[in-house]
Design goal:
Layout lengths: L5 H11 L1 E3 L2 E5 H12 L6 H14 L3 E3 L11
Parallel strand pairs: 2-3
Antiparallel strand pairs: 1-2
Helix pairs in contact: 1-2, 1-3, 2-3
Length: about 80
């Protein structure tokens, strides 16, 4: 979480969490994208952003969906 401000992480988790019958769910691909837009940080790795967001989401009682697909940005 060193690269990101806690308030930014909290805002993104609250904005991206969707209420489901089983609890709040945060899709990581959406959360990482929202964090980049909010902070303007397009340099930090997706892994760093995901790790920071996951820690905050879990502490807030949210389930985390790791929905990023490796190679999705590769054009065939």
């Amino acid at each position: 979480m060193d690269n990101f401000e806690l308030i930014d992480l909290l805002c993104v988790i609250d904005a991206c969490a969707s209420d489901r019958s089983a609890g709040r769910l945060v899709p990581m691909s959406k959360a990482v994208e929202e964090l980049r837009v909010l902070t303007g940080d397009f340099v930090s790795s997706d892994e760093d952003a995901t790790n920071a967001l996951t820690q905050v989401a879990l502490k807030r009682g949210c389930a985390v969906l790791f929905d990023e697909q490796p190679g999705a940005d590769i054009m065939a």
